[in-house]
């Protein structure tokens, strides 16, 4: 849906130009179907299979490393939707099956046959609801949890302060609301002390903390520019002690 469709074409062009497909992990999604001027959510096996074929063409590849059902629809049994992707996985067209934005009950239905490899959902230090049911379930079922909004719309990067001019749109987000925002800034300043001691950025410490969670194997912080991607990779240089891991946990508990 991004572009729409153009994002996949760009990736396909770049990968083909560089000739390094085997070194690249490509993840893409489907669920949004354009019907005239409207967009409807469709998890039907026919639509998912068609979407994979179209993505393969746009990406100029013969396999997709990870294919997600982007959003759940209201009608399709989730195990049937995932079953369609399992057929494509058996054919070698996709290598891993993911679901995104599913409720806990929808995830369990989707994974009835044990075919789900990845779950993508909201999780960050300011929004830890996934720890209650989702984390134990995915860990027990060998499903990787990939959090979106890991930096809470940039708040957890440490770039905001009490004098930052927030837009009206931003002030409507839970973590930026009056009173809550100020308390969040205090918590982030405590993380900044850890970051300063390590000579790194707040964002790198936050992302490194996520990688200490048993359920999380991969994180996907947003990036608009190439230098931001390279900056995010510095997370891998951060080694948190057990004491620091526990301290961050307690700060945001």
Task: Please summarize what this structure is.
This protein has 253 residues and is α/β, with parallel strands linked by helices. The protein contains ten helices and seven strands.
Explain how this protein is built.
- The protein is an alpha/beta fold.
- It has one domain: Alpha-Beta Barrel (TIM Barrel), CATH 3.20.20.100.
- 41% of the residues lie in helices and 12% in strands.
- The protein is built from 10 helices and 7 strands.
- Strands 1-4-5-6-7 form a 5-stranded parallel sheet, with helices on one face.
- It is globular and about 50 Å long.
- The model has no long low-confidence stretch (mean pLDDT 95).
Radius of gyration: 20 Å
CATH topology: TIM Barrel
Q: Identify the CATH homologous superfamily.
A: NADP-dependent oxidoreductase domain
Label the structural class.
Answer: alpha/beta
Quick one: overall form?
Answer: globular
Q: Which architecture name does CATH use? A: Alpha-Beta Barrel
**Number of strand elements:** 7
Largest sheet, described in full?
5 strands, parallel
Which regions contain 5 or more consecutive residues with pLDDT less than 50?
none
Please identify the top-level CATH class: Alpha Beta
Give the overall average pLDDT: 95
Count of domains? 1
The termini sit apart by: 36 Å
Strand ordering within the main sheet: 1-4-5-6-7
| Helix and strand sequence | HEEEHEHEHEHEHHHHH
Helix content: 40-55%
Assess the beta-strand content as a share of residues: 5-15%
What's the helix count? 10
């Amino acid at each position: 849906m991004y572009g729409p469709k153009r994002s996949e074409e760009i990736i396909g062009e770049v990968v083909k130009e560089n000739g390094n497909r085997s070194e690249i992990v490509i993840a893409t999604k489907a669920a949004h179907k354009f019907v005239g001027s409207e967009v409807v959510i469709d998890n039907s096996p026919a639509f998912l299979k068609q979407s994979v074929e179209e993505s393969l063409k746009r990406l100029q590849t013969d396999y997709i490393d990870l294919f997600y059902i982007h959003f759940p629809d209201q009608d399709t049994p989730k195990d049937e939707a995932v079953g369609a992707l399992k057929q494509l996985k058996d054919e070698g067209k996709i290598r891993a099956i993911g679901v995104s934005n599913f409720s806990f009950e929808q995830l369990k239905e989707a994974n009835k046959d044990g075919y789900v490899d990845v779950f993508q959902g909201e999780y960050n230090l300011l929004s830890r609801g996934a720890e209650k049911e989702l984390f134990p379930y995915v860990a027990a079922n060998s499903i990787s949890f990939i959090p979106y909004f890991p930096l809470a719309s940039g708040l957890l990067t440490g770039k905001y302060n009490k004098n930052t001019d927030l837009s009206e749109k931003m002030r409507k987000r839970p973590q930026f609301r009056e009173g809550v925002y100020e308390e969040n800034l205090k918590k982030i300043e405590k993380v900044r002390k850890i970051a300063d001691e390590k000579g790194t950025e707040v964002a790198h410490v936050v992302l490194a903390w996520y990688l200490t969670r048993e359920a999380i194997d991969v994180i996907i912080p947003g990036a608009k520019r190439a230098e931001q991607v390279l900056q995010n990779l510095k997370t891998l240089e951060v080694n948190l002690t057990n004491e620091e891991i526990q301290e961050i946990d307690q700060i945001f508990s």
